[in-house]
Amino acid sequence: MIPSLRVALLHPSEFAQYGGEAYIMHWRHAVNRASIEVLTPLVGQKPISSLKEARRWVRERDWAGVDVVHAELLPGASSAFHVLMALSELPGRPALSATPHAPGVLQWRFRAWRLTLLDSCGLAAHPLHRRWGALLAGLTMKRSEKRLARRLDGIVAHTPALAELLLRRLNVPASRIHVIPYGAVTMPTAPLPDDSTLRVLHVSARSGADDLQGLFSAVAQVVKLRPEQVGRLRLTLAGAYAESAQGVDELISLIGESGLNGLVELHPDVPPSEMPALIQRHHCVVVPGPKPGLAGVSWVFTGVVGALTCAIGVGRGGVVSADVMCNGQLPPGVGAISTLDGRRRGLSNVLESLLVDPGVSSAW
Known about the structure:
The structure is a single chain. The chain has 13 helices and twelve strands. With 364 residues, the chain is of the alpha/beta class. α2 (51-59) packs across α3 and α8 crosses α13. The longest helix has 21 residues, at 293-313.
């Protein structure tokens, strides 16, 4: 008889902010089906911001009964990274593994003190500073990050392209990197909505009005090209798009400025249990291009894992920026069609073709 395993899953509280509930649900579902017990020691834990804190946190807990510790390394969330590093120093430690969600790195963060100062002052939001940070990220990876990579017993990449990137940048044996595609729990499917109206859904757990300008511009371009079809197009925004009344007003104002009054519906704070049914009331999910720099890395997790996995699970496809496809963040055949590019033109072209024949999305 095969002895049962106990796995400690390290996923930070920030997962909830990035639409990660569905991802963790799929993870636990798959592991539990193999009769493996899953522990979640970081749930309810305040963020651990240093290796010193992590060492103390690890010492206060008994790891003797844990066989494997697996961490989901979310960009900018350091708790799981520090805990893994502290565990790697223990004699007789459990086996350690991780899934990085920042392409090619274990932990995406500033190294240079000047950039750290800019970030702490709130100045890193400037587009030039974000691009600077993105360019330096691969060149200034901390030595501790590579040291942890060498100590890990396994690293999970979701696509072969990301596995190759990890292999080059982390300098670890290829035998330690394993490709496990994004998975989705299969849910009851429903027919596509009536073709009389093209219904497009954008889902995000962290979006502000500025994040939606590219999407609105693409939809406005379709309206300009097909004015006779404007009554057949509806865009739904689902997620925490605004955290205040002022934010809602700004979003409504942006919709009006884009010429989309009457075409956009808002569904804020949709409970995870209701998301599958909401997705099935639409023809497809749209995941437009990421913002530059650090925010773009966070977008990868929010847009792709949160929305597309759920869409695929309920039998819907997606329109995804070519930036994601070309970077290898999605494997082929996952039920998504790539736009021609990450800008407005590519997205508007795909949306226009869907408006002409909404049923084409069933082939994705």
